[in-house]
Amino acid sequence: MPTMASVLEDPTLERHFKGHKDAVTCTDFSPNRKQLASGSVDMSLMIWNLAPKARAFRFVGHQDIITGLQFSPSGNLVATSSKDRTVRLWTPSIKGDSAVFKAHTAPVRSVAFSHDGQRLVTASDDKSVKVWSVHRQCFVYSLNQHTNWVRCARFSPDGRLIASCGDDRTVRLWDTSTKHCINCFSDYGGSATFVDFYSSGTCIASSGADSSLKIWDLRTNKLIQHYQVHSAGINSFSFHPSNNYLISGSSDSTVKILDLLEGRLIYTLHGHKGAVITVSFSRAGDLFASGGADGQVLMWRTNFDTKSYQDVLQQHSRRSTPDPPPHVTDIHPRGPHLHHPQPTAIQISPAVADTQSTDPDVIELGQSVHSTTAAANSHHSNGLPPHHVGSSRVEGWMGDRSASRAGATSGSQTGAGGRGRGRRKEEEEERGQTHPLEVLSGQPSGLDSTLRHIVQQLDILTQTVSVLEERLTLTEDKLKECLLHQSHILSDVQSSGGRRRTESEETDGSPVHFT
Length: 515
Hints:
This protein is α+β, with helices and mostly antiparallel strands. It is built from seven helices and 30 strands.
């Protein structure tokens, strides 16, 4: 059936994860592809174990919105950045240990590891990019030529360059040895929201609040591709490991997939209600995740990267879609492409049911859940100028498009520290009327220590059960061995007795009688 075969080549919704209490701002897959991490406006880090029926971990420690996260190259650490001005390094296990960097004097917008895992780079509203030593857990140096908030910073694959972008509408390229800014791309119509390198390190891509996505060749410093396929600001994007595809998430509620070799849009995915704030490919590229203002994390199977490009293109050319055609005339350089003059996008509606089990059990780790949840309102009273609220990668979607979310109402509607009218009643009841400062001040509550004790006891019980299981298995093996040995002895005795009787009969020719 050719129709079924064609469906399998499209991306499919593999699984959804529900556990965050507010918008999801960042996602990343572990290098071994066994875990998926997500950060949220609810100030928690969730570690989703991808095995069926596995438990999920919720790490609580930040006192404001988590803005960025990334697994270390080895997968044994997760770094998170937050509006509470800190960066944390977590152990993604039930122990939940974390180390804290007092990173910046203003909200930290992104965090990323170098490819050798030795360094961290952070970007902040204090207009600086900073580099940190992971093992020594200390500050190394700062890069300070941005003139406004810095939204994102990333290391090149070889660690010799850093790319950063921000609200000064520029993308800057830094030499890590000289600490100098060696290039500046500055033709954005609005805030530059996200930046990253090709895996080869020869190109960078950057996205903007003006809904544009641009790819620059660092060898020639030329803009080589320019996409204008979204109808609202782009909040995040991710390169496929092959560099042949790119996914982007936008405040227009869609995820779009670009074929970079052909220079065109090939898929538009509708799965989120409200802005899509984060997208990320797995390290192998066979999966990708998206998270958004609806608090969901969706995990998709890529599928389309398994066929040859010619087969994919022929198949796409035979399809139609309600989506508008991509702006091919805006792709630079304006040279001939291998695809047809009027390419069409394929729109996928993720009506596929969750193929896995129901939502996983969540283990709470870290500080008091109630006191930390109460602090969620503090991001309304951070003293930031009202005109900045709608421009950042984390807050840009917190406007009219997601007014029903807890964080959707802007400062001008609620006043500093005020509650949004769209907050759900159960959240108000949970948080109560206590002022955040009253909850967070002083020593940790008794509930905090009780929860820590419970988690420790659960850890001990888990270890004890595993030891008992191992001992039972060993005992069972020993019993089987003994029974098998005994059966061998009995069979040997019976066979030897039969042989002696036969020999005696053969000797005198008559049966042997015992008296």
